[in-house]
Amino acid sequence: MNKRSIIIDTDPGIDDALAIAIALFNEELDVKLITTVAGNVGLNKVTYNTLCLLKYFGKENIPVAMGADRPLIREYEDASSVHGKSGMEGFDFEKPTQTAIKENAVDAMRSAIMESEEPITLVPIAPLTNIALLLKTYPEVKNNIKEIVLMGGSASRGNKGVMSEYNIGVDPEAAHIVFHSGVKLTMVGLDVGLKALVLPEDSEHIKGMNKTGKMAYCLFKKYRGGSFNTGLKMYDSTAIAYLLKPELFEAVETYLDVELHGSMTHGCTLVDLKGYLGKANNATVCLDINGDEFRKWFVDAIEKCI
Ligand code: BDR
Ligand code: CA
Where are the transmembrane segments (predicted)? Predict the structure, then answer.
């Protein structure tokens, strides 16, 4: 089988940890590089967390490159209230031996994309700072990017602000650059993630399944993206699910933009379903997900891990 080459841009992050696990052990995906960006917690912490995960999964051969330590323009705001102080609270990881490569995330992405024989898919599951810097600094990479499938934004309301989702709301200027880059783009947003729930019975099931399930269970006990008892939101895994099983989603071709100047709505994604803005479509936006099928897929995907 021809594997699909991907780069994951991430800020682990408890839901990031699960998305990374699923991608690493899926036979259809080849994770070429993982890049880190300040998000859920600061850059050093998310990078350390990524290295911990790779050690835990026995995948220290996958390069990790550090990216931006703050948004393009705005003040950095973390999400440690959701993921804990370390960003992956709840599990004691062994100290990693691997270190991040010397190249920064933007240069490392450029090299991986330009050297790849087949076009690469970018999967950002964090603020879009690194991806925006890449597309602006090295626009030539666009020719060898298959598409960008990102977790972020919302076709309805927000979780950072009334109308802004965290990944987009933290760095809306970066999102603006990515949305207008001309690269094929799919947005799997917050409103979809709200329905991508892991229920307590799923957590109990995966707990004894394997190493990954054991880790997930401990992290889930501390995760504040939803509630352990009524359902935990697996936002970032929805981007991986879209790559592997798009039939789980209802999606539309539409015009997508982001509010930069609203005094109360900056970071809000505008999904112009009715064409009010009269602009050409520039994105595929997921509007719904089959939650029951997602849960089955998620549990099966964890079973494929070590
Ligand atoms: C997104 O924000 C982060 O807290 C999660 O890891 C996810 O990427 C959800 O809004
Ligand atoms: Ca994330």
Answer: none
